[in-house]
Design a protein that fits this description.
By secondary structure, this protein is α+β, with helices and mostly antiparallel strands. The protein has one domain. The protein has six helices and eight strands; from the N terminus they run αβββαβββαββααα. The strands form three sheets. It has a three-stranded antiparallel β-sheet. Strands 4-5-6 form a three-stranded antiparallel β-sheet. α1 packs antiparallel against α2, α2 runs antiparallel to α6 and α5 runs antiparallel to α6. The N and C termini lie far apart (59 Å).
Length: 247
């Protein structure tokens, strides 16, 4: 079978605006982390920020979703199976948007036991994908990601406060099935950078060139993704501490 040709993506003004919205949000988040923590970064620009290949549809900012008093972005995924919103922390939603920048998209993949459809990060071929829950929680390859409590619709929730990871040996001890080794966050970053380099090649540019319309190099993009994840983790920790102190 001939290798699938990657089509070059034209990054127009809307893509440039989406990148700016993500960067502005990360800057505000960094200020929140380093400051007094009284004013959360504004998630509104993220609701409509999309890159050309995005499979994320309408998004809304909400509070108190599913009984959790927590800032939340509810977003729909372009898929015939995706009738319900998926819930994200705004700070991790910014990461999800950036993952889509080089031709990535969010797809639904059925769980091992064929019970639920989980959101995953993929390129043009959905067979190679990375579960968003594992990226968000930074689950090790030797662990599984689980909900904090079992309830109907838990697979719709990608807010980090509702998730945790558990060692695969524990899962097996409880008599449940699990893969020998699973994907992790670093692998997802490498995959995203690979998509970025494929876009450079599709534009007939060298690996060190800047992507037209966004003026990013592959190292720039990898650094941006890593920083976005670092900030998202720090936002989660700081907001969790603030919520605990305030009861």
């Amino acid at each position: 079978m001939p290798k699938q040709r990657i089509k070059p993506i034209e990054y127009d003004q809307s893509a440039s605006s989406a990148l700016a919205a993500c960067k502005d949000y990360l800057q505000e988040a960094e200020q929140y982390i380093q400051g007094d923590g009284k004013s959360l970064p504004n998630p509104t620009p993220l609701l409509t920020a999309r890159f050309p290949s995005s499979s994320l549809l309408e998004a809304k900012a909400k509070d108190g979703v599913d009984g959790l008093d927590w800032p939340t972005i509810a977003a729909k995924i372009l898929d015939r199976k995706a009738k319900s919103d998926r819930f994200f922390d705004p700070w991790y939603f910014a990461v999800v948007l950036l993952l889509e920048l080089p031709g990535g998209r969010i797809v639904l993949d059925r769980s091992n036991r064929q019970q639920y459809f989980y959101a995953a990060y993929a390129g043009s071929n959905a067979k190679e994908n990375f579960y968003l829950r594992r990226i968000i929680v930074n689950t090790p390859v030797w662990a599984d990601t689980q909900e904090g409590k079992h309830r109907d619709g838990a697979h719709y929730d990608y807010r980090r406060a509702t998730l945790h990871w558990v060692c695969k040996d524990v899962v097996r001890t409880l008599g449940k099935k699990t893969r020998t080794v699973s994907s992790n966050r670093d692998g997802a970053i490498r995959f995203a950078v690979k998509l970025f380099k494929q876009q450079l090649a599709a534009h007939r540019l060298s690996p060190r060139s800047r992507l037209p319309g966004l003026e990013l190099t592959a190292p720039d993009y990898e650094r941006l993704l890593s920083i976005a994840l670092y900030i998202a983790d720090a936002m989660h920790e700081k907001y969790l501490v603030a919520k605990t102190r305030n009861g």
